[in-house]
UniProtKB/TrEMBL annotation:
The chain crosses the membrane at residues 69-91, 103-123, 153-177, 198-223, 258-281. This is Sugar ABC transporter permease. Keywords: Cell membrane, Membrane, Transmembrane, Transmembrane helix, Transport. The lineage of its organism: Bacteria, Pseudomonadati, Pseudomonadota, Betaproteobacteria, Burkholderiales. PROSITE patterns: ABC_TM1.
């Protein structure tokens, strides 16, 4: 009977195991193989070594997209962490209308960025959005044309992305805050410790596992950012807001260069591994020490 149960359990896991092996691992290996070939429109069964990777890092557009991704990732993650934590602390004070506020802050994350990106594109449009609206209200010198400024357009993508993702960070950190023992706060009040000190020295270290999870989610979102850029700027003006994922898609479908696109995809995969693997390893070691 026990063997039968084990057999049924493994049978239930079989579809997911096949998905991981074929859809994930298999396609990753196929992408790696293509990146080592001279494939253009269709795959070729040849081998050119790391030539595609050399071409990739000699491509100015790719280097620009990496720079944009670095700026976007740093500002996006920092802003989401700070705003999400501030919103979580605010709601944790048992404010009135807590349920409504949680829904309002989390709602943007449930929306498609294709739709919300178009809305933000309109809001930030200097000819039809926020700028002319405020000028008509009397602020005639007000200008906000970042979305058409090559030096500032990437910041508009950050603003829209933070608006969408900060609510998720808020929800996760709020759950962590609600799990902290109330006796800690009572003891801190009795000792006269300021609230900011309690958050900095006690609460944040206790939220370390939750913060690690948030970091993983945000970092993977940064690496694969695509829809926000396409919906708002199409990578423009010019290539000023280009990101690696858009570079890959353009070369895969628009320029018929699947080898170069595959090389870019492998680089992005390695970036995710470099960011996430040490964190996952540290968490596994911590769990092992706790279980010992």
């Amino acid at each position: 009977m026990k063997r039968r149960r084990w057999g049924m359990a493994w049978l239930a896991l079989l579809p997911m195991a096949l998905t991981v092996l074929l859809a994930y691992l298999g396609t990753t290996l196929w992408t790696l193989r293509v990146s080592l070939s001279s494939s253009r429109t269709f795959p070729r069964d040849d081998f050119v070594g790391l030539a595609q990777y050399q071409r990739l890092f000699e491509n100015e557009r790719w280097l620009q997209s990496l720079g944009n991704l670095a700026v976007y990732g740093l500002l996006f993650m920092l802003a989401c962490m700070v705003i999400g934590f501030a919103l979580a602390v605010f709601i944790d004070q048992k404010v009135r209308g807590e349920g409504l506020l949680r829904t309002a802050f989390l709602y943007p994350y449930a929306m498609s960025f294709v739709a919300t990106g178009l809305v933000w594109q309109w809001v930030l449009n200097p000819g039809a959005g926020l700028q002319p609206a405020l000028q008509q209200l009397g602020w005639s010198d007000f200008t906000f044309d970042w979305i058409i400024d090559q030096d500032k357009v990437i910041y508009t993508v950050v603003i829209a992305s933070v608006w969408q993702a900060a609510g998720l960070v808020m929800a996760m950190l709020l759950a962590g805050l609600r799990g902290i023992d109330e006796d800690i706060w009572k003891a801190a009040r009795m000792d006269g410790i300021p609230a900011w000190r309690v958050y900095l020295s006690i609460v944040l270290p206790m939220l370390a596992p939750t913060l690690a999870t948030v970091f993983v989610l945000l970092s993977t979102a940064v690496v694969k950012v695509f829809d926000a850029v396409v919906a708002m700027t199409q990578g423009g003006p010019g290539t000023a807001s280009d990101v690696p994922a858009k570079f890959i898609m353009d070369h895969l479908f628009g320029r018929a260069n699947i080898a170069l696109a595959s090389a870019g995809a492998i680089v992005l995969l390695l970036t995710v591994v470099v960011l996430v693997a040490p964190l996952l390893y540290a968490r596994s070691r911590a769990r092992a020490r706790e279980g010992a």
